[in-house]
Amino acid sequence: MLIYADSHFVGTVGGGAMESLVIQEALAALVDGQTRLRSYTLNDITVGDPGICGGTVEVFIEPLALAPRLLVIGGGHVGKALAQLGKWMDFRVILSDDRAEFCNPEYLPGMDEYIVCKPAEVAQHVRIDAQTYVAGVTRGCP
Predict the structure, then answer these.
(1) How far apart are the C-alpha atoms of 116 and 122, rounded to whole Å?
(2) Secondary structure of residue 79 in the 3-state scheme
């Protein structure tokens, strides 16, 4: 079963309450990057088991490492060069600038995402986590 960060999934581990628990565990694993081995007893729903098929199932949950992200805040000449270097190094590159003319595919093709906003607002548009590297190369605007 493959579970994405937005909660959609492909495949199944049997459905029902157990599958819901597995999805929640997988989403947590995507956040903290830790593998998990969970055991579920499927004997009696009335005592809190997530199923009634009988027996026990063990599920190994492993978050797949995605390419790290490089968030470049500032699309001037330094930010442009840094973003291009990031793509060359196989990062997923997100370019942000408050000036639309410096943050678009025509100005800098091939980036994974373009976010036009003030530097102080970037965190409202991008999830920054342990796989995100941030380079602020702005002209000093708030």
Answers:
(1) 9
(2) helix
pTM summary value: 0.60
Encoded amino acid at 126, one letter: V
Beta-carbon-side half-sphere exposure of residue 65 (alpha carbons within 13 Å) = 6
Q: Are 120 and 99 in contact (CB under 8 A)?
A: no
In tens, the pLDDT along 100-133 reads 999 999 999 999 999 999 999 999 999 898 889 9
Cα–chain center distance at 103: 22
- Look at strands 9-10 and 2-3 and give their pairing: antiparallel
Long-range CB pairs of 121-124, under 8 A, 24+ apart, other chains included: 122/71, 122/73, 122/96
